[in-house]
Specification:
The chain contains five helices and seven strands. The chain is of the alpha/beta class and 208 residues long. β5 and β6 form a beta hairpin. It is elongated. The N and C termini lie far apart (92 Å).
Length: 208
């Protein structure tokens, strides 16, 4: 009988300690009544008029003319005759920016500063066999065209465009959808998308 009483007493004590521990833990995890941190972030509804573009491609970016399936370098481009690939890609971006300038007629005149990070197209061997993908990466900042004030700091933009292969690539060329046409149209749309809509950043923004 004494053993039963001692067992019940110990069990009651254990339950009491567990209950106290649970209450303490719950109290410790209650959220503190702290006001949210102030933020300087503001929303800018883009109302741009693209006035120009600057383009940079570092000499450290590796270029390949090898006709392998996938050269492990930064720049692969076959949409122009053999030449200065950085210059050729810069010309594509310039054409795209000029097109955007014709359609952007907003109140804020801006210049796009573009720095190439990667421009990996497909080689002849890849394009006329399995096909592949155009992988385009660049940094873009937006400046006020008249004052030079930075409106949108540089951010990374990544694009992927499918590259038809084999007979599909030949048919595309015959229809006028060459590599250069397709890529230029794609980059034009990328720039349109990145200069429209809303931008969230640190204000105040200079509108004029």
């Amino acid at each position: 009988m004494m053993k039963l009483i001692r067992f019940l007493a110990l069990a009651f004590l254990a339950l009491s300690v567990t209950a106290c521990g649970s209450i303490e833990t719950a109290t410790r995890n209650l959220p503190l009544d702290v006001p949210p941190l102030a933020s300087d972030e503001q929303v800018l509804t883009r109302n741009y008029s693209v006035q120009g573009m600057t383009f940079a491609a570092s000499d450290e970016l590796q270029v390949s003319e090898r006709n392998s399936y996938y050269p492990f370098v930064d720049i692969v481009w076959r949409g122009d005759p053999i030449g200065d690939r950085r210059q050729q890609i810069g010309a594509i971006f310039q054409t795209a920016a000029d097109r955007v300038a014709l359609t952007n007629d907003g109140a804020i005149p801006v210049v796009l500063d573009i720095e190439l990070v990667r421009f990996h197209g497909v080689t002849e061997r890849t394009r006329f066999s399995v096909g592949g993908n155009y992988h385009i990466v660049f940094m873009m900042a937006v400046r006020h065209a008249e004052t030079g004030v930075l409106i949108e700091p540089g951010r990374k933009i990544v694009g992927n465009l499918s590259a038809p292969g084999g007979s599909a690539a030949i048919l595309a060329d015959q229809r006028g959808q060459t590599e250069k046409v397709r890529v230029t149209d794609y980059i034009t749309q990328m720039l349109k998308d990145e200069t429209a809509g809303e931008y969230i950043g640190l204000g105040p923004f200079q509108h004029s």
